[in-house]
Model the fold of this input.
Amino acid sequence: AVTNKLLKFVEAQLPKHDILLLSDYAKGVLPPQTLKKCIALARKKKVPALLAPKPQDPSYLTAIKGISLLVANRQEVITMSERAGTLEQACKRISKSVDSPLLATLGAEGMYLVDPTGTAGQFDAHARAVADVSGAGDTVAATLSLALAAGLSLAESTDLANRAAGVAVSKPGTTTVSPQELEQVL
Done:
């Protein structure tokens, strides 16, 4: 009953928004079947859907096929790839499998963006001094969503999100990044 209410809410809200951000914390709200239905609703309404996953095993990929953009950290990439091959090989395999770009967040190593054709790019980290990495992934997902919804390209959005993460990790605790802080690092 709760899942049906959630799906009806998502369907009703999609026409009012430019992007759907799904952030899965594996707490039961977004199990694979619910994610699959949310992605299908977004595709039907022609609203891009971005997913920050919390995969439990490689079968997660089946449910998220067709997501507009997948944003995963190193451990999530490893889980989805069954620990096979290099990180770059795993990212390319996952991107091809879900038929969407994958942005792998790699902490001090920056970010790695790959699309289903295998085209890839590396974005160096922008952290000045790391105080706390809590919330960095959420900062990336939120900034990417906002930038994409505003019409920036995927590469421009990734660069902006990377810079926002650099600001976020330079502050203690889970924190926000203000427009002024982001302007300073641009």
Notes: Residues 42 and 178 are 29 Å apart (CA to CA).
